[in-house]
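TICKET: design request
STATUS: open
ATTACHED STRUCTURE:
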């Protein structure tokens, strides 16, 4: 039977729940980091990614509403995260659309939900369901630890290629530079909230499971982008990945 873990044990268990499921392992990410995608492929990514991350402040708002008043630092973090997404300087979705336009698509196409894949729609729906229905600490584990904390490691591999291979300007890739920094901070604060407030065996186990599921969801979403938009032009064998 599971026992209540101390903070160090729980932190290690959370990291292990995500380990091995990074979206960096998806063929779309491998192709991106190696410079084998076209700008058209990157445009399709942006059109999908908008509908996953665009509502992130909405997800956080549902968690905020469900968080007890006694969890002051958690509510402060969620509110600050929402502010940064929507009001703290350039809106993050506007930076994403700037990149999308540099790839050759339009704001209208990006904002049109008909242009996201079924898998992207599933990820968005899962995020909404978790934010609205789960215990707030479990929801933070899912969306901030399981999903958001992965972002810096993903973008650190992809962003240099955008400059060196594709020739994007600093302004055009600001979305990625910003999230390498901000999501590292957000991810760590998410960990601290979960470590502090998952104070029963049941909550710890639920957090571990949903972190694993969150990582799997992002990996599935990123893998689907390859099969939906890239596979016909770039087989796995050209990425040194087994079919």
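STATUS: resolved
RESOLUTION: sequence designed for all positions
ATTACHED SEQUENCE:
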């Amino acid at each position: 039977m599971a026992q209540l873990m101390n903070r160090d044990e729980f932190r290690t268990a959370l990291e292990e729940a995500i380990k091995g499921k990074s979206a960096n392992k998806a063929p779309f990410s491998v192709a991106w980091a190696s410079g084998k995608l076209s700008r058209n492929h990157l445009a399709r990514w942006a059109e999908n990614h908008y509908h996953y991350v665009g509502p992130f402040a909405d997800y956080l708002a549902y968690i905020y509403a469900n968080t007890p008043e006694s969890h002051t630092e958690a509510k402060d973090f969620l509110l600050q995260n929402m502010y940064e997404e929507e009001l703290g300087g350039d809106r993050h979705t506007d930076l994403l659309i700037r990149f999308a336009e540099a790839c050759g698509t339009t704001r209208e196409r990006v904002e049109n939900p008909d242009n996201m894949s079924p898998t992207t729609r599933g990820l968005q729906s899962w995020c909404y369901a978790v934010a609205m229905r789960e215990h707030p600490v479990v929801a933070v584990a899912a969306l901030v630890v399981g999903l958001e904390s992965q972002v810096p490691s993903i973008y650190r591999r992809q962003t240099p290629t955008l400059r060196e291979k594709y020739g994007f300007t600093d302004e055009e890739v600001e979305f990625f530079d910003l999230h390498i920094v901000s999501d590292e901070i957000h991810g760590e604060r998410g960990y601290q909230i979960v470590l502090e407030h998952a104070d029963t065996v049941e909550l710890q186990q639920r957090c571990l499971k949903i972190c694993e599921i969150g990582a799997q969801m992002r990996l599935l979403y990123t893998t689907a982008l390859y099969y939906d938009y890239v596979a016909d032009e770039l087989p796995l064998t050209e990425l040194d990945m087994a079919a």
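CLOSING REMARK: The chain has a mean pLDDT of 91. Residues 33 and 161 are 6 Å apart (CA to CA).
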